[in-house]
Amino acid sequence: METVSLEHQIQSVQRHIAFLKKEQMELLHDLHLEILRLQKHCSELTHDLEMKELEARQQDVLDRELEEKCRAMEAQLQEKEKDNLELRKELQHKETLVAALRSSLRSKERRFLEELKRRSHRVTILDTELQKQTE
């Protein structure tokens, strides 16, 4: 009876060992699958990170290029403003000259008209005298 009980216990232990081996195998299989899934996820995250870093570097390059273009445009703008200021000064000087020339021209025109009136008046007087003499 003791041998039967002992054999029963041995069989029971062997069944437990077989069950535990089976459970361990299933657990190892699941763990391997989980490791593979995590490795794949890690690879995807690494790829995403590399892409983001690449995009960030490209954006930095674009930002630097835009900053350089902006500085160049600002320099051009300053140069154009400087040129514009010089042109305004020149225009103001020329407007002053034009105003002086207009004033001079008006003065000469007035003198011319006065001289013309005097001569016209003189011609009229001489014409009148000539008519008197011819009569």
UniProtKB/TrEMBL annotation:
<keyword id="KW-0175">Coiled coil</keyword>
<dbReference type="InterPro" id="IPR040370">
    <property type="entry name" value="CCDC74A/CCDC74B/CCDC92"/>
</dbReference>
<feature type="coiled-coil region">
    <location>
        <begin position="63"/>
        <end position="97"/>
    </location>
</feature>
<feature type="domain" description="CCDC92/74 N-terminal">
    <location>
        <begin position="7"/>
        <end position="60"/>
    </location>
</feature>
<dbReference type="Pfam" id="PF14916">
    <property type="entry name" value="CCDC92"/>
</dbReference>
<protein>
    <recommendedName>
        <fullName>CCDC92/74 N-terminal domain-containing protein</fullName>
    </recommendedName>
</protein>
<dbReference type="InterPro" id="IPR039496">
    <property type="entry name" value="CCDC92/74_N"/>
</dbReference>
